[in-house]
Amino acid sequence: MSAITINAQKPNHFITTADYTAEQLLDLVNRAIQFKVESKYSHPKARTDRPLAGKTMALLFSKRSTRTRVATETAVGYLGGNAMFLGGQDIQLGVNESLLDTTRVVSSMVDGIMARVGGHDEIETLAKESAVPVINALSDKYHPTQILADLMTIHEYYHHKKNNVAKGVYSAHTQHPRETLNGLKVAWVGDANNILQEILVAFPKCGISVSAACPPGYVCDQDVIDIAQADAKKTGASVVFTTSPEEAIKDCDIIVTDTWVSMGQEEEKKKRLAEFKGYQVTNDLAKRGGAKADWVFMHCLPRKPEEVDDEVFYSDRSLVFPEAENRKWTILSVVDALMVRGGI
Ligand code: CP
Ligand code: NVA
Prior knowledge:
By secondary structure, the chain is of the alpha/beta class. About 40% of the residues lie in helices and about 10% in strands. The chain has helices spanning about 20-40, 65-80, 100-105, 120-130, 145-160, 175-180, 195-200, 220-235, 245-250, 270-275, 285-290, 310-315, 320-340, and strands at about 55-60, 80-85, 110-115, 135, 185-190, 210-215, 240, 255, 295-300. The longest helix is centred in the last third of the chain and has 21 residues, at about 320-340.
């Protein structure tokens, strides 16, 4: 009888885009576009191979989610696998069992883990202890699958615009994202949170400049700032921080914001609403700040009206709904890379 060899190689994870090069991220975007085209626009539409048949991904979520959960469950299903949602009320984690023990047990039975956690140290523990690939579905420091979807959305928008493609005709796959993204300027107006931090470690290395306005006292982690500035130096992009929304917006192509009160910060709501006064994204703010005439708006959602008014949010400038849909195609691309192809 021949011996069984156990493959003890460390699994690949997707914890932050900071761990990957621009080429690797844009390859993931290109693959996401292929999935979108094959699923929505090709004939016949049905995919015949089921590369994740017999495999399971656990969704270990300690916080609420609409987009990330639906995107992941549908992505795993698309590849023929089974997605098992394990919310905070479902399992022993945090009540009767530690994260370390939970990770060892769950990862011994599944083929991948998508985890939404509190502190970033929790996702790092998961990645260290897991026997299978772990994807960060949001931590207090980073949100990598969101910013991958944002790169795809920006690429699609500018590809269509530059190539003068009619609305409803899909064609984001003829130009490399590097060409569409390089040289753009993104203005952030809002909290110094996980979304801004993921933008900072992803956009400058793709050649996108970032100017961020956050209220006094709201600052990003120094290691994140260091990564952003080092990446910007290499690509010629710029990274600027200010407390003035108008200053951040000057000459920008895209204005991005997020909630002023992230999950877990509910007790600070009153204080935050007061301190973010003047930060609501409106057409008037964009005009006062001197955004480019054809500026567009992005938001990871869910959205509250205090951070962006309805006039902008539901306008033709707003990319928020394609951005939400692209969570599915980009998560599909990451799951395919980690669970089917063996790495990014
Ligand atoms: N943007 C985002 O992560 O949304 P959900 O919290 O609904 O997953
Ligand atoms: N900053 C938000 C993002 C939600 C997708 C939060 O952490 O709650």
